[in-house]
Amino acid sequence: MNKFLKIGIIIVLVVVGGIGVYIFFQKQTVFPGIYASPVGTYVNEFDSNQFLVLHEDKTFHLKERGIDFYGKWKIEGETLFLYAEKMISSGVELPLYKTEKAKIQGNTIIDDDGIKWIKQR
């Protein structure tokens, strides 16, 4: 086999292997639609009555401390942005214009208070 062909094959294997290792350890969506989707239900590590649902249509429902929040979400890198548009407390619906940020790492969301929200399977 030609020396240059062998070197080319080795380079391809190293690059492909490196990408696979990166994706395995990253455990996060690197290219939309190819790897783990953030869509799903996340539960507060300390209180299972508090949860966050990220829907496929980029809307969310957050239940925290007895209050329901609704709005839209997006991810940039490892940052999850929640754009709350309304809240419902004790049956009263109120408009809301608030943005919250959290860190997303694989199947875990870490909020600004350091509380982990674990994705349910």
Q: Which key terms come to mind for this protein?
A:
single chain, about 120 residues, Lipocalin, 2 domains, 1 helix, about 20% helix
Structural summary, described in words:
The chain has 121 residues and is α+β, with helices and mostly antiparallel strands. The chain has one helix at 3-26, and strands spanning 40-44, 51-54, 59-64, 67-76, 79-89, 92-105, 108-110, 116-119. It has an 8-stranded antiparallel β-barrel. The longest helix has 24 residues, at 3-26. The model is unreliable at 21-34 (pLDDT under 50).
Brief summary:
This protein is 20% helix and 47% strand. With 121 residues, it is an alpha+beta fold. The chain has an eight-stranded antiparallel beta barrel.
**Order of helix and strand elements from N to C terminus:** HEEEEEEEE
Helix segment count? Answer: 1
* DSSP E strands, number: 8
Annotated CATH topology of the largest domain: Lipocalin
CATH architecture of the largest domain: Beta Barrel
Q: Proportion of β residues?
A: over 45%
> Structural class, from secondary structure content?
alpha+beta
As for the number of domains, it is: 2
Provide the helix percentage.
10-25%
The CATH C-level name of the largest domain is Mainly Beta
User: Rg, please?
Assistant: 20 Å
The first-to-last residue Cα distance is 49 Å
Q: Biggest sheet, in brief?
A: 8 strands, antiparallel, barrel
Tell me, rounded to a whole number, the average pLDDT.
84
Poorly predicted regions: 21-34
